[in-house]
Amino acid sequence: MFEKILIANRGEIALRVLRTCKEMGIKTVAVYSTADRESLHVRFADEAVCIGPPASRDSYLSIPAIMAAAEITNADAIHPGYGFLAENAEFADVCAEYNVKFIGPTAEMIQKMGDKITAKQSMKDAKVPVIPGSDGLIHNIEEGKKVALEIGYPIILKATAGGGGKGMRIVWEEKAFAQNWDSARQEAKASFSNDGIYIEKFIEEPRHIEIQIMADQHGNVAHLSERDCSIQRRHQKLVEESPSPFVDDKLRKKLGDAAIKAAQAINYESVGTVEFLVDKYKEFYFMEMNTRIQVEHTVTEEVMNLDLIKAQIEIAAGLPISGDSFYPENAHAIECRINAEDVFNDFRPCPGRISELHTAKGYGVRVDTHIFAGYSVPPYYDSMLAKVIVKGANREEAIAKMQRALDEFIVSGIKTTIPFHQKLMKDEGFRSGDFNTSFLENFEI
Ligand code: MV4
User: Fold this and answer.
1) 78-99: pLDDT as tens digits
2) Of 10, 169, 292, 395, which residue is the catalytic one?
3) Top-tier CATH class for 207-442
4) Least buried of 184, 217, 382, 442, by fewest C-beta within 10 Å?
């Protein structure tokens, strides 16, 4: 097992990783920017190294700064958390070069899944269902229109380097093709320095359902059931739950088998997530694979009764997973993301000082957060402050528990997304479980 892990992240996930390291008897190194000097991950770690000024590119995204911190502290592994360098193949490569274990998959696996066309082709070869579309990149408008006509409108243009909706355009009819082509390419080029575009049939009002998997270095792959992440706003997830109200045992088995096939196809190692779009007929399609631990891993932890960070560290150390079948508890977990945002003003970020704090507590409630009374939310990073995760015997009980948890979660001094979640938990559409990724487009807070 590792002796000392450097945590190349900040905020709640740095704390989350640190806690498991402590429980496993592993020493920890925190890294921090000058904006995060007073953070809890710095206070609770065995050692802490300042890696630069507030801007991410000069600190949490600086590979030289982080490798220097690993070197001077003699860390034998690095946990990247999520965001920042978690899916940076070059970083994984540099770690390998320095003989520091990157706690995640290899650079090659990250690269394969990071390029969407390569990923899609690997899945097609492995007989995982993919969305009908172009065979690779589209080179010009003429070729694009031809492919679109064959598939049938509406179609969607996607950036091969994409993710998170950037460089994505829906095209409803041929006469709108050229204009959308130009804007998709421009956005892709500006965002990823890669203007490669491909075409897919546009799946209308799908659910976003993802399968958590884990795969060890010995060829064992297991899936850990699904999360429904359909409640999103502008590609930012706000609520996740497990099980999905839409997934029955038959669909769960099919999704699980497909996710395992996906991981096996690339000899995947580590924890990971296979994302699917599921249409109203319960047909499902591979969308992308995340090669990191995700924000919403906690809902899976609650229903599976399993520490996913511990599993990730054990896998990285070469330990085998304990079997190939894991079953969820007869329970329902929901997570609400509490962000420092003004929900009445277009979810505008609202950094500032937290003057008073009372987090939710009690039976079946878990709060993962790095904030405390007197903490100042810096303006430089992601606005997520806390995750409220509840577990109940069924969905109705979980919603009731979330409502009472949100009611006793008090943050003064800054605006948060709590009022949004309170409204959502009362909404008949949400409560019915009959929603899709378009749900929040017509939701008035
Ligand atoms: C799609 C789609 C419909 N049809 N692809 C959004 C982000 C990127 N990962 C892929 N996305 C989508 N791809 C086809 N062929 C709809 C979306 C989509 C979406 C997907 C998951 C969750 C929320 C979404 C919101 C808008 C669009």
Assistant:
1) 999 999 999 999 999 999 999 9
2) 292
3) alpha beta
4) 442
